[in-house]
């Protein structure tokens, strides 16, 4: 069984142009992490997920062995913006049903074309670690979403809006956690709290290792 756009139902073994038709129901959200340019130490703040600008470069998939570097921040700040850096990450999810079998994909990515750093040479390693943890939190919630989708037992004949409702709950939780992270660490200025969050996120990644990207 196959589903088309909007959850439209097609029959088992349906084909279009001689090829199996596999349509996806996908949602997209973005979390933005900012670093304020201050006279003293650099701080960071997060903005609630919003629809991103069209990407010009391929996204960077999250990987434990491939941390972000300032070279990944290839966008440019808008005129008059006071921030020192901006990180844009996407959490993309899609689902399909083929012959009554449900499957889903969840992909966390970093968007180089809409992420930028004003001055990489003068930006601190602490700021980069703070931004990296925003991306790490994206992976945490990608794993949580995969876990929920695996145990959700969604009905292929009623895939929508059930799939959209389930994913939206996780997206909202992700947004809230990103905001808590910035508030609790004072946007990265509180080194002790930053260390606590780094330990916390690493523990969450370990607990959800079975659902890793």
Automatic annotation (TrEMBL):
Q: Which domain of life is it from?
A: Bacteria
Q: Which Pfam families match?
A: DUF922 (PF06037)
The protein's matches in InterPro entries, at most eight in alphabetical order, are given as: DUF922
Q: What is this protein called?
A: DUF922 domain-containing protein
Organism the protein comes from: Hymenobacter nivis
């Amino acid at each position: 069984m196959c589903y088309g756009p909007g959850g439209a139902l097609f029959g088992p073994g349906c084909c279009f142009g001689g090829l199996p038709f596999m349509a996806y129901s996908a949602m997209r959200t973005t979390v933005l992490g900012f670093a304020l340019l201050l006279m003293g130490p650099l701080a960071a703040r997060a903005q609630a997920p919003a629809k991103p600008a069209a990407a010009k470069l391929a996204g960077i998939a999250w990987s434990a062995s491939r941390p972000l570097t300032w070279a990944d921040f290839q966008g440019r700040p808008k005129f008059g913006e006071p921030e020192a850096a901006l990180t844009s990450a996407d959490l993309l999810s899609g689902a399909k049903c083929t012959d009554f079998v449900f499957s889903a994909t969840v992909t966390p990515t970093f968007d180089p074309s809409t992420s930028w750093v004003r001055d990489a040479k003068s930006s601190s390693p602490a700021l980069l670690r703070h931004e990296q943890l925003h991306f790490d939190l994206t992976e945490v919630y990608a794993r949580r979403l995969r876990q929920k989708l695996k145990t959700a037992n969604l009905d292929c004949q009623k895939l929508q809006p059930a799939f959209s409702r389930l994913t939206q709950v996780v997206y909202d939780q992700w947004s809230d956690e990103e905001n808590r992270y910035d508030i609790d660490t004072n946007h990265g200025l509180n080194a002790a709290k930053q260390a606590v969050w780094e330990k916390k996120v690493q523990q969450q990644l370990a607990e959800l290792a079975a659902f890793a990207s």
